[in-house]
Amino acid sequence: MSKNKKILILNTGGTFSKTYDEINGNLVVPIHNKAIEEILGKSKISNCIVSGLIYKDSLNITQRDRILLKNQIKKSNHKKIIIIHGTDTMDKTAKYLAKHIKNKTIILTGAMVPFSLDEIEATSNLMLAFGYISSKNKKNIYIAMHGNIKKYNKILKNRTLGVFECQK
Amino acid sequence: MSKNKKILILNTGGTFSKTYDEINGNLVVPIHNKAIEEILGKSKISNCIVSGLIYKDSLNITQRDRILLKNQIKKSNHKKIIIIHGTDTMDKTAKYLAKHIKNKTIILTGAMVPFSLDEIEATSNLMLAFGYISSKNKKNIYIAMHGNIKKYNKILKNRTLGVFECQK
Amino acid sequence: MSKNKKILILNTGGTFSKTYDEINGNLVVPIHNKAIEEILGKSKISNCIVSGLIYKDSLNITQRDRILLKNQIKKSNHKKIIIIHGTDTMDKTAKYLAKHIKNKTIILTGAMVPFSLDEIEATSNLMLAFGYISSKNKKNIYIAMHGNIKKYNKILKNRTLGVFECQK
Amino acid sequence: MSKNKKILILNTGGTFSKTYDEINGNLVVPIHNKAIEEILGKSKISNCIVSGLIYKDSLNITQRDRILLKNQIKKSNHKKIIIIHGTDTMDKTAKYLAKHIKNKTIILTGAMVPFSLDEIEATSNLMLAFGYISSKNKKNIYIAMHGNIKKYNKILKNRTLGVFECQK
After folding, report:
1. Residues sharing a CB contact under 8 Å with residue A23, sequence separation 6 or more, in sequence order
2. If residue A148 lies in a helix (H) or strand (E), which one and from where to where?
3. How far, in Å, CA of A83 to CA of D165, rounded?
4. How many angstroms separate the CA of residue C105 from the nearest CA in chain D?
5. What is the pLDDT of residue A1?
């Protein structure tokens, strides 16, 4: 690990990077990290690296995927990790990671609207996480969405409104 | 001040919000905060408020403008303030504020490319500041640009490359 | 009918105007003509009017819908009509209209990529039709897609490539 | 000339393809045809070719440039030519070409808003010309802007409103 590349961004898929398949007329999770890379490139950000290991709608994330993700994180030298994840099971993955990983700062984020459809929300959520993780903070598992960053069990998706809200 | 609206975003203009004037064919600083408001709206962010007080290209920011800005900040109840500012004299305004304001966290940010031309860099810089200011951090004057947030005198615009770089 | 509003644009839905439903994560045909209106507005076009009568994915267009569309066209004073239609059954609707309407110039067009996802192809197809219908041409039923405008039975969707191609 | 590549698009610059220069903060006419090529690519258009010969703001187009353009057109095998041109002197170039070229259909078009800033108007104007030139029409010099295509001396830029209007 290079000393200057402090933050690791791990892509697991989700709405964040969905792209349109013209032939079938569907939005699909592509097997690449281009949405993240376009954000970093246009934002002139060089102090992080991007890696993808699962490319799934979060409704299809399995326990095996979570184990894979956890092992990847444990193996990594990085102490500051942002995970791009679908919003539907972001809380489950966060809870699982919280049980197994104690000595790293991990922030899960994602998007309600694909970056390919509108660039703002996805960029906003990723950079919210990026700004928070750049500060001095307690090693913990966080969720960063819609302007709020909280410990993973203090912020929840309101499925009716489509917004993440802080819990009392 | 409402308890839920913790972060104040103060607009002073700059490239960030420049828009195209069709009749004259120029990019101009508009007298409104629509670029910031569009980012916050599409990002579903409600825990902040936006206010504008100077709408200038930063090359035209005067000492009088800086005094006005400083007074506005002192008067405000907000302890966490993000300032949207042109990149050319961002460091001068930061230095001036650092001399006069001790008990607040202030982050200056802006953009090299107008939000109206490309939404990513401006959104990225604003949300980098937003994420950082949401954490626990030392009261100080910071600059947040291009993935880096540092004390205002530790980060500088490289005018040849058009990128803000950390100073040793 | 106003003398200056010569061209009628009739919206029947299709991929052209699909928008993203955040709550369900699907692309849906909205019950409005905003995509068309945004194109006309930003293009500063005032010599046409827009009207919507069916808002469906073209796979769901029924014979009853075609009768409705035909009756609407017969009733209208307009001699030049552009129909926004899904690409999958554009040829069927065109064939049906060709049987029943002899004294008007009608151009069917649409898009493979929703305007909400990428503005170029939808704008391009609509304006291709608009430019052609603005000229002197034989009263007939045409399809305008991907740079080609031909009599409806001389141009066909290549479903493998996702492109409309001229037939020999 | 290939039989299938019937339409020639000649780029002379203008607002249509201006891009943002971050270092100087200006919009400049680039020495390439990427805006046109992006429109054609995303529109899946293959029945035309693009060529650039002057890359200037139309206020800087000289009589020498017009002679160059006229000679290029005379030399070309193409009978149908679209010229991308700045809006300020589009009428002057059209008038000059009308004096010298009798046996071709030439449509001048351009944009009030750079394609790099907003994709719709530029795409709309180009495709309006493209649709019109695809029809059978009298060999002549036309201007196509904002939904109107007329003989070059029957349509004029309203410099106060920033819209091209038909002349009585």
Report:
1. C159, C160, C162
2. strand A148-151
3. 53
4. 13
5. 39
Residue contacts between A and C (CB atoms, under 8 Å): 27
pLDDT at B2 over 90: no
Confidence of residue A8 (pLDDT cuts 50, 70, 90): very high
In angstroms, the CA A72 to CA A60 distance is 19
Q: Is A50 on the interface with C (CB under 8 A)?
A: no
Using one digit for the tens of pLDDT, what is the confidence trace for A70-79?
A: 999 999 999 9
Query: What's the pLDDT at B5?
Result: 58
With an 8 Å Cβ cutoff, is C45 touching chain D? yes
> What's this model's pTM, rounded to 2 decimal places?
0.95
Q: Check: CB of residue B121 under 8 Å from CB of residue B113.
A: yes
Q: List, in order, residues 6 or more apart from D62 with CB less than 8 Å away.
A: none
pLDDT at D44 over 70: yes
Q: Which of B37, B47, B124, B138 to mutate to test the interface with A (most CBs of A within 10 A)?
A: B124
Could you report the per-residue pLDDT of C41-59, keeping only the tens digit for each?
A: 999 999 999 999 999 999 9
Q: Are B153 and B118 in contact (CB under 8 A)?
A: no
Q: What is the pLDDT of residues B114-165, one digit of tens each?
A: 999 999 999 999 999 999 999 988 899 999 999 999 999 999 999 999 999 9
Residues paired with B142 in a beta bridge: B107, B151
Mean pLDDT of B84-104: 97
Q: Is B91 on the interface with A (CB under 8 A)?
A: no
Contact assignment for D113 to B160 by CB distance below 8 Å: no
Q: What is the pLDDT confidence band of residue C7, given thresholds at 50, 70 and 90?
A: very high
Nearest CB to B134; choose among A44, A132, A164: A132
* Amino acid at position C77, single letter: N
Q: Are A15 and A111 in contact (CB under 8 A)?
A: yes
Does A8 contact B at CB distance below 8 Å? no
B149 touches chain A (CB under 8 A): yes
Residue D37's region, left for phi above 0, alpha for psi from -120 to 50, else beta, is alpha
DSSP secondary structure string, chain C? --TT--EEEEEEESGGG-EEETTTTEEE--SS-HHHHHHHHHTT--SEEEEEEEEE-GGG--HHHHHHHHHHHHH---SEEEEE--SSSHHHHHHHHHHH--SSEEEEE--SS-TTT-HHHHHHHHHHHHHHHTS---S-EEEEETTEEEEGGGEEEETTTTEEEE--
Tokens of A95: 């809870």
Amino acid type, C122? A
C25 and A27 in contact by Cβ < 8 A? yes
- Dihedral Cα A150, A151, A152, A153, nearest 10 deg: -100
Distance from CA of C91 to the nearest CA of D (A): 19
Among D121, D87, D116, D113, CA closest to D19: D116
Give the tens place of pLDDT for each residue, A28-47.
Answer: 999 999 999 999 999 999 99
DSSP string, B3-72: TT--EEEEEEESGGG-EEETTTTEEE--SS-HHHHHHHHHTT--SEEEEEEEEE-GGG--HHHHHHHHHH
Residue B73 has pLDDT above 90, yes or no: yes
Q: In one letter, which amino acid is C151? A: K
Token pair in block for residue D133: 């030139």
What span, in angstroms and rounded, lies between the C-alpha atoms of A58 and A71?
18
In this prediction, residue D168 carries a pLDDT of: 76
**Is 70 exceeded by the pLDDT of residue B4?**
no
